[in-house]
Amino acid sequence: MKSIKFILLFTTLTLLVSCDKKSKDETAKIEYQCPMKCEGEKVYSEKGTCPVCEMDLRLLSKASKKVLSTEISEESIFNLTSSWNTEEGKTITLKELKGKTLVMVMVYTTCKAACPRLTGDMRNIEQKIPAEYKDDVQFVFISIDPENDTPEKLKQFAVDNYIDGEQWTFLQGTESNVREFANVLAVKYKQISPLDFSHSNIISVFNPGGELVHQQEGLGVDNKETIAKIIETVNQ
Ligand SMILES: [Cu+2]
């Protein structure tokens, strides 16, 4: 009788151990995938680069999801205390954009030359971000003509350019806020007539902590690196 009890106990223990081992194996399963999904849903068991686009493969495990630190580094734009009006008529500080990768550009709505193309470049970048990352990226336009670009005008600009969605934000500041922010981005601009400005053509990427991580300069330039950087920061 004693030996039967012993065998039962032994069997139960073995079952428990093997069950435990199974669940450990499942949680330890690590898979990598191309962030652009060049090969569809294909996964790799080891770190590396995508053989098609050569971007770093990303970890698929839930554990890879970033844990946002509450601290802000000295380089972060979230240290700026300036307040801004949005196209929806809200007043915000930049810190309220914390937690998402930010893609920013400085334009003005009456521009007939470069700004429409910069806007097209922003839309192009947005369209190339894979759907699963879209919630983690915010596209921000800052007007260099705050006197004319009121929240209403910015809203109209968004509608006219088919960029009137949650992932798009348009900001009107004060002359000095705009100048201060332009200095952070190394964007130069100058009013050359009552209606026109000359300005740099720069799209900047900030990580979710508000640190500048990448800039693309020019109009209609190859945005591959910009997109890679956006995905990399979302993935941090
Ligand atoms: Cu312009």
Automatic annotation (TrEMBL):
CDD domains: SCO (cd02968). Disulfide bonds join 111-115. GO terms for molecular function: metal ion binding. Keywords: Copper, Disulfide bond, Metal-binding. Cu cation binds at residues 111, 115, 199. Residues 69-236 form the Thioredoxin domain. It holds the Pfam family HMBD. It comes from the Bacteria. InterPro entries: HMBD, SCO1/SenC, Thioredoxin-like_sf, Thioredoxin_domain. Belongs to the SCO1/2 family. This is Photosynthetic protein synthase I.
